């Protein structure tokens, strides 16, 4: 299953207004259009672990608070996240100061983190172990040839530039961001 990631930028006031009605929050944020929205394909799945491995204090995909709240966070895994303006500014600074070339050496580790099978999803929904952590002997850790790493490096450079611009703009306007995957 492929999950696409979306980011929007919005004022703190609009974020609070949307958050105040969790039943309509998903519908409201998915109606945002360009330039307030950045649609990512699979890239967010690598950027999240890549930023963690690289030591980003604010990770645009993993930091922040659940949105609209802990009980009603939407997204494919119920993990929509919101960054406040100070966090957005920190993320923007980190992105601006970190050229993608500096992150590229961490790609292999990010791919391993992303693709290591640690949970039982063997499609036997009736199994008592379905969705449970795998025992160590069943964890599957992939390997990636250098050519594949180079291909990812090439394919991630432009989305990284887009993400940097998106956060620079949000920080300049004192905005919040919301990320979700669907």
From TrEMBL:
Pfam families registered for this protein in UniProt: DUF1877
Q: State the Gene3D superfamilies in the record.
A: YfbM-like super family
The record, for InterPro entries, names:
DUF1877, YfbM-like_sf
Q: What is this protein called?
A: DUF1877 family protein
Q: Which organism is it from?
A: Paractinoplanes ovalisporus
């Amino acid at each position: 299953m492929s999950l696409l990631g979306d980011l929007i930028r919005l004022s703190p006031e609009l974020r609070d207004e949307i958050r105040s009605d969790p039943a309509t929050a998903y519908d409201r944020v998915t109606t945002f259009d360009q330039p307030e929205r950045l649609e990512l394909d699979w890239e967010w799945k690598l950027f999240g672990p890549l930023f963690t491995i690289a030591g980003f204090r604010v990770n645009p995909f993993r930091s922040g608070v659940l949105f609209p709240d802990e009980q009603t966070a939407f997204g494919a895994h119920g993990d929509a996240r919101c960054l406040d303006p100070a966090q957005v500014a920190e993320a923007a600074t980190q992105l601006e100061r970190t050229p993608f070339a500096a992150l590229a050496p961490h790609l292999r580790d990010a791919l391993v983190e992303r693709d290591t099978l640690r949970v039982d999803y063997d499609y036997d929904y009736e199994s008592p172990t379905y969705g449970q952590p795998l025992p160590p002997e069943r964890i599957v850790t992939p390997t990636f040839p250098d050519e594949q790493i180079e291909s990812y490096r090439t394919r991630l450079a432009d989305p990284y530039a887009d993400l940097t611009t998106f956060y620079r703009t949000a920080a300049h306007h004192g905005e919040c961001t919301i990320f979700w995957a669907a």
